[in-house]
Specification:
single chain, mainly alpha, 4 helices, 86% helix
Length: 179
Amino acid sequence: EVGALAGFARIAGRADPVNRLAARTLLLDHRLAGVAPAQAQVQAADRQVAAAAAAVQATQAAITALQARQRDVQQQLAVLDRWEADIARDPLTRPSLEQTAAELSAEVAKLEDTHLAARFELEDAVALLASLTARRDEVTAKLNAVVAQLPEAQAQQAAAQQALAAADAEIATHLQDGP
């Protein structure tokens, strides 16, 4: 005989000739077959959304770093503009001009190094941005496909839940009716 909980444990056992509960457990399994794929699709969509959010955050961090670098360069340019204004305003003697020229040369060397490093960073950032944009477009397309499947998956899940409720009611009825 099949025990009272055979439908819940999904164990068929031997068929009860009166209630045939073992045969009915197969119907319950068949009705619930759509729940797992729908849940897997929802989980995959959640993972894709998380990956897209991480890509956007990385892009924003790269942009923030470049903006800070741009501010530093603008400050250095302001110093150079100040020196130029000082030279134009006040005629200097040869030793003071030589000292200013040496300072300017040192600053130009630093700026050239900074500019070169910034240019390489910009190239890397542009490549990263292009890569992230392509990845975002790819993830967005996949996410849109998953979102398009969600109503059907939700409908399948609702149908499976209704089938489960009906099967529960049927099992409860059979248990109340007894052998």
